[in-house]
């Protein structure tokens, strides 16, 4: 939110060089937006978690 929908240090050519097509990049952005929107909605309505919570391990 702080970068106003601009990805810092994003270079699409580097992503393409890594083997991703424009369609792949669009799909990555679309899924990211989907998960971000889902998180906003869950936070706004304080949705109850109905599955076992998994805490990340400390590295």
UniProtKB/TrEMBL annotation:
SUPFAM superfamilies: AhpD-like (SSF69118). This is Alkylhydroperoxidase. It comes from Paraburkholderia ultramafica.
């Amino acid at each position: 939110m702080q970068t106003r929908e601009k990805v810092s240090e994003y270079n699409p050519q580097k992503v393409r060089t890594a083997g991703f097509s424009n369609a792949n990049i669009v799909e990555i952005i679309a899924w990211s937006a989907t998960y971000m929107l889902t998180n906003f909605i869950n936070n706004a309505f304080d949705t109850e978690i109905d599955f076992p919570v998994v805490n990340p391990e400390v590295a």
